Amino acid sequence: MDKEKIAEVKRFYDGGAAQEWVRLDENREEFLLTTYMMDQYIRPGDKVLDIGGGPGRYSLYYAQKGCQVTLADLSEGNVTFARAKAAEEGVPLTAHAVNCLELDSLELGQFDHVFLMGPLYHLLEEADRVKAVEVAIRHVKPGGKLYVAFIPTVSGLLYCLQHEKILLEAQTNPEDMLHLAAIEAGRDFGGLGFTQVYSYALENILPFMERFPLKRLHFFPQEGCLAPNKMALRQRSPEEREMWLDTAKRYLERPEFLSWGEHVMYIGEKE
User: Fold this and answer.
1) What is the pLDDT of residues 176-222, one digit of tens each?
2) Which of 15-29, 99-113, 161-175, 230-244 has the highest mean pLDDT?
């Protein structure tokens, strides 16, 4: 990825750390279902490396659970925000502003768990995406777990479903039309979205991950079956929202719901 595009992504997050923190409040189903799966493996005292962890929502969650957490993110704004949040909440957090492709330079060693939940959203070149996963795997202990998040191309269609008249507006935007054409053709798509974004056709994600020395444990939509109607779900009673969350947990690994997620996660064990 060229320096200009990296700088564009960095500027986007430098100016939006608080917004990303709030996004996971508004999209609580994504956070709660993702941690529901991760909690099956992560225990107090474990060492966690959060690569591309943004303002530290997942980092702080696991620091509060007694894990030794290191956050690494491209955006200095995100890192500054995460450090301030950690201080505010009284939990230890080590945080570095660094490009995920240059992470080896910090000599951080190996961890029980490594999150790669963000970098693959923005690396437009195949070689960079492969390198990002390879770097992450080098930081996983043998038998440790790697958690990798992807944006599927179909998320663009889900966004249109959630917002009134967005699909109509997309018909006049060449970039949006290319994205919709990629969904129809079953292709990956890289280009402008909320910033420089790379999204995967769902059928291409597992073949991409199979090249790495990992045993697949889980592959699931991070919003479960809830994303298509998430805007309306926010207006329902807390009791009904909890019932839907419990329902989503039961269906979380049903393959027919993969295309219902705005984000999907692969969890693998280092062999």
Assistant:
1) 888 888 999 999 999 877 778 999 999 999 999 999 999 999 999 99
2) 99-113
Burial environment of residue 10 by CB neighbours within 10 A (0 to 12, 13 to 18, 19 or more): buried
Residue with tokens 């291409």: 204
Structure-block tokens of residue 35: 């941690």
The residues with which 13 forms a beta bridge, in sequence order, are none
Dist CA 1 CA 126 (whole Å): 9
The two tokens of residue 137 are 């795997």
With H, G, I as helix, E, B as strand and everything else as coil, classify residue 192. strand
- Structure confidence by residue, pLDDT tens digits, 125-168: 999 999 999 999 999 999 999 999 999 999 988 988 888 778 88
- Per-position b or e across 88-125, b if 16+ CB within 10 A of its CB: eeebebebebbbbbebeeeebeebbbbbbbbbbbbbbe
Q: Are 221 and 148 in contact (CB under 8 A)?
A: no
CB 223 within 8 A of CB 230: yes
Q: How far apart are CA 97 and CA 76, in angstroms?
A: 5
At 116, list the tokens.
Answer: 């790669």
Q: Where are the alpha helices (DSSP H) in 65-144?
A: 76-89, 126-138
H or E stretch including 219?
strand 214-221
CA dist., res. 153 & res. 190, Å (int) = 9
Percent of the chain clearing pLDDT 70 (strictly above): 100
